[in-house]
Amino acid sequence: MVREQVAMVATPALMIGSCLGLVVGPGGLIGFQVDLPSLPFLAVGFSSLLLLSWGFAVSGAALAGYLLRNQLRDALDPENLRAA
Length: 84
Fold this sequence. Notes:
Layout: H1 2-30, H2 39-67, H3 69-75
Helix pairs in contact: 1-2
């Protein structure tokens, strides 16, 4: 459950950030020395960055779920749940 919640939030943020970094980063850093990247380079870069960032987000969410499993188990014990 935690893995899905973290992945739902982290995946779009990582994907958008990495794709914006691909577009803005090289143009601002080395744009005055070389030509702008070509369209095939951007297409391959976008697709690879989307896959990589999705993989990082899902694996990070799985790691967070694994590391928090004991705390979640303790928090969800029936004796720890109280009606307000």
